[in-house]
Design goal:
The protein is mostly helical. The protein has helices at 5-14, 50-62, 82-92; strands spanning 21-22, 67-69, 97-99. The model has no long low-confidence stretch (mean pLDDT 84).
Length: 104
Amino acid sequence: MNVNWKIVYAYIKTFRRPSILVLESTNDCNANCTMCSRVHLNRDIGTMDFKLFRKIIGEAKIHNIDFFQLSFYGESLIDPLLIQKIQYIKDQIPEAWTQIITNG
């Protein structure tokens, strides 16, 4: 296969960093939705440690990531430190956008 490396390089240069970082603040949930694949998880249910969260945000800051989604399999609003985590993101990266998805 003949590859035009100039085009490949231009593409890589254009998209050199992720545009969004999805963080699963918690994988705990207060709902039992029939369509949710969460029931098939093979890991413990819990909330992300704040120390790990700070480390991840520090790495994201180095890589100029400024959009964060704090949800995945769990219900974000169950995380007792959610407000502090969002505040930490805003303290470290003032221009950051933060999004949560909730069943609330």
